[in-house]
Each structure stands twice: as structure tokens, then as C-alpha cells.
Amino acid sequence: MTEEETRNIVIKDFFKSSIILNELDEALKFKPDTLIGIDQISSEKLAEYNVKNIEELAHLSLENLPDIKEIPPSVLVKWVKIAQVLEKAIKEKIKSHKKLLMIGLDNGGKTSILAVLQDKFSIIKSLLPTRGVKREKLDFFGYPILSWDLGGQVQYREKLYFNRPELFFTEADLVLYVIDTQDSDRFAEAANYFRQVLKVLNDLNEFPPVLVVLSKSDQDVRTTLEWQNNVNAIKNKFNNIIREHEKTTISYADTTIYQRETIMQMFSEALKLVSETSEIIVNILEDFTNTIEGKATSLISMDGLIFGSFTNSDIDEALLNNTALIMQTLSNFHNSIGLMREPSMTLNFPLNGFSIRGEKLFEYSELNIPVYLWLLSDNVELMYEKIDYFKQQLLPLINLFL
Ligand SMILES: Nc1nc2c(ncn2[C@@H]2O[C@H](COP(=O)(O)OP(=O)(O)OP(=O)(O)O)[C@@H](O)[C@H]2O)c(=O)[nH]1
Ligand SMILES: [Mg+2]
Fold it and tell me: Quick one: 323 and 197 in the same domain?
């Protein structure tokens, strides 16, 4: 199957089965009720407000939605967002890869993070400082990425990147700015470089999301007061710089190469910054969690990519995600010694009055990686009432996410 054909199938998942899709861009001219989840009566109502097709639905302004009695505003918002994601996917025909820029001082841990992402643990010990830029194709869960690892030694920073910034800093989909949390002597230098990078992006009129990676947050170090002070010092410095750049979205994530899951979680965060579909996934999780009276839900792939989580309590979210990741590791081990994968896994906490259950929803990418829906609830059985509807809404989004 060609890539084009694959994309068509992904797009087709958003539509009811009755449509025939020949040319991708034709799809935008279809009536709203060709989409799964929009009924014919609502579609006719929308037409009265001059919204006759998916493109027009995507172009409604979220700040100023028409007041349609028969369609609750929260539902309309959801439809508009889905139409927007679809329009973007179709118009771009989805770029063949995403460009990831790894930036930071020398010895910060950039190349090591890329090695862990690719499970190349054995090369980490023998890594040398990166000379200039190293470009590499990564396949992250079937998500095609072109990483640009900008060696951080001072000669490259001063003589190469800022002399011809357009060669390095344009068209990035994501910037990971890596800073060594244990090297407090160099925080000022790292902040200075960060400021230069943001300035050059700004001058080029480029505003990719930026994730500040707090690297070398090793398990034994994290609990020390010194490390916590270091992280606060970094955030203070960086937040000051960020304030000068209101168009750029920035967040933080800490990692250590000694715990692969920290790198996976960081990368999941990063992908959420890049992908607009993730917000819709969280909306759908919210809907689902509320209808089945759960405390927290998460959608996680078997190799640890968290597509989205919903909860009203951060503690519940941490409890659910950490438990789920460990149970998945256990399941991977069972699988590796030849056991069949269980479609459902439950951990009961009878004294605490709740359970955590993971339910396999589907597999994604050509690698057939299982994706589990995890639920923390007093009554996990309720999840089965709505799960099919939920699955139908999520599947096309997951395929677009990647
Ligand atoms: N303790 C600890 N050491 C790390 C971690 N990540 C990387 N290192 C070590 O830090 C050193 C530098 O790592 P690199 O990945 O080569 O750093 P880099 O940012 O690519 O450096 P340049 O290529 O010079 O820009 C290596 O000795 C790594 O083993 C981590 O999470 N914890
Ligand atoms: Mg390097």
C-alpha cells in the first residue's frame, strides 16, 4: 500500500461507513453528518446557519459559535475541533516526518536521550561529544521523526549555528532544550544559550513548541535538596526568558537515561505539544470518565506512549499512570517468555475500595502495538457500558496522532 493510500484509510475512519472517498480534498465538501457522531438532524440545523460542509464547520470561530438551540455548545465545540483536525490533516496530507531539534550545552545528555529512545543502550557508554549536527531518522512507535542533534560544544554554538541560522532552526516541529540538572556551575551559560536560541527562532518567525528537558535527574539525586534547588534555579532563570516570548509554548520534563520510562513520558509530553489531536483525545477521555463515574483514565501504548490522561486529581493520575506502566512492563515480560497477551488486566485494592483495570482497545501502526485504556475506579465494571462507543471515537484520532 502506498503512503497516500494509508493516509486515505486513516482519514476514512472519521466518516460513517457509507461514504466513498476517492480524492482526499473532496472529503471537506461532505455534509457534517457524514462524520461519525454527527446526526442528520443536527447537520440540517447547521445548514440553517450556513454550515453546509466539513470545511465550513472547521472554519467556525470557537470564540463566537452560533447559538443553536438543538446542539449543546460543548458538543458543537467538539465537532468544530474534529473538523479542524481533519482539515489540517487533509490539507497538509500530513508531512512525511516531523523535525525534532535537540539543543543544549555540550555534555548535557542530548545524544544519550536519542540513544535511549531507540533502545540503543549499549552505545551510551562510548558516546563522544557530537561534532556539529547529527541528523538521524528515528522511528518512534511508527512516528517518523528526523532528529537534528546539535552538538553543544562552544565552537559550534559560536561559529556555526548562529552564523547561518536558517540552515538549522527553520521548520522544526519541536525543540527539546536539554539542560544538565546536576551541573549548576553552567546554569547561567545554559540560560544564555537558551535565550539566543529563542531569539533566533523569533527572528526567523518560527514558533515551534519548546520542551525544556531537565536531564540527569537520576533517581538517587532527585530526592536531594541540592537537586530540588537546582531545578528551581533553572526554572526561575528560564521562566524569565520565556516571559519575553509570548508566542512560544514551553513546558518542562525531567529525565534520566537510567529509567527509560522518564524518557518515554517526556517524549509523550512532547508529542502532545506537537499534535493537536491530543486535546481532543483528552476531551473524549473526560466524557468517558464522567459517564462511567471513574476517578482517572489513561490511554497508553504497550511501549509506554501516553496518548492522554484525564482526572480531577493529580494524585489519582500519578497512581494510575505509574501502576499502568509497571503492569505493562510486567505484561511485556510475560509476553517475552511466550505467554499470550491478556486483553484485560486488573489490580484490586480491596482495603482502599478501588481497582485499576487495563483493557486492550486496539493495536496501532504497522508494528501492531497494543494500546490499553486504563481506568481507576470504585466500580471498574461500568467501563464496559460505554467502551464500544468510546473506541469508535478514539481510533481515528490515535491513527492521526502518529
Ligand atoms: N548521570 C547521568 N548521566 C548522563 C545522563 N544522560 C547522559 N549522561 C552522561 O552525560 C555525558 C554526556 O552525554 P551526551 O549525550 O554525549 O551529551 P550531549 O548533550 O550529546 O553532548 P554534546 O554532543 O557535546 O552536545 C555522557 O557521559 C553520558 O553518559 C543521565 O540521565 N544521568
Ligand atoms: Mg551529543
Answer: no
| Dist CA 30 CA 48 (whole Å) | 16
Pocket probe for ligand 1: among 100, 102, 107, the residue whose CB has the most ligand atoms within 8 Å is: 107
pLDDT per residue as tens digits for the range 75-129: 898 899 888 888 877 766 545 678 899 999 999 999 999 999 888 888 888 899 9
Q: How far is the CA of 105 from the centre of ligand 2 (A)?
A: 9
Q: Are 299 and 383 in contact (CB under 8 A)?
A: no
Residues, CB within 5 angstroms of ligand 2 (ion)? 110-111, 130
Cβ atoms < 10 Å from Cβ of 46: 25
Q: Which domain holds residue 334?
A: 277-401
User: Do 243 and 107 share a structural domain?
Assistant: yes
Examine the domain organization and report whether 368 and 229 are in the same domain. no
pLDDT band at 258 (very low <50, low <70, confident <90, very high): very high
Q: What would the mean pLDDT of 143-168 be, rounded to a whole number?
A: 90
What CATH number has the domain bearing residue 286? 3.30.450.30
Residues 301 and 368: their CA atoms lie apart, in Å, by 10
Q: For cell 511501549, what's the residue?
A: 303
Ligand 2 centroid–CA 367 distance in Å is 29
Q: Is the pLDDT of residue 360 over 50?
A: yes
User: 342-355 pLDDT, tens per residue?
Assistant: 999 999 999 999 99
- Residues 128 and 157 both lie in one domain: yes
User: How far is the centre of ligand 2, averaged over its atoms, from the C-alpha of 211 (Å)?
Assistant: 18
243 and 135 both lie in a single domain: yes
Which H helix or E strand runs over 226? Answer: helix 225-242
- State which of 219, 246, 274 marks the end of a domain: 274
Q: What is the mean pLDDT of residues 302-329?
A: 91
CA of 150, closest atom in ligand 1: 25
CATH number at residue 250: 3.40.50.300
pTM above 0.70, yes or no: no
Residue nearest to ligand 1 atom 3, measured at CA = 216
Out of 249, 274, 299, a domain closes at 274
What is the rounded CA–CA span in Å between residue 175 and residue 165?
14
| Helix, coil or strand: residue 220 | helix
Question: Does ligand 1 come within 6 angstroms of the Cβ of 215?
Answer: yes
Cβ of residue 132 lying under 6 Å from some atom of ligand 1? no
In angstroms, the CA 86 to CA 107 distance is: 41
Q: Distance, CA 256 to ligand 1 centroid (Å)?
A: 10
Residues 362, 348 share a domain: yes
Structural domain tally of the chain? 3
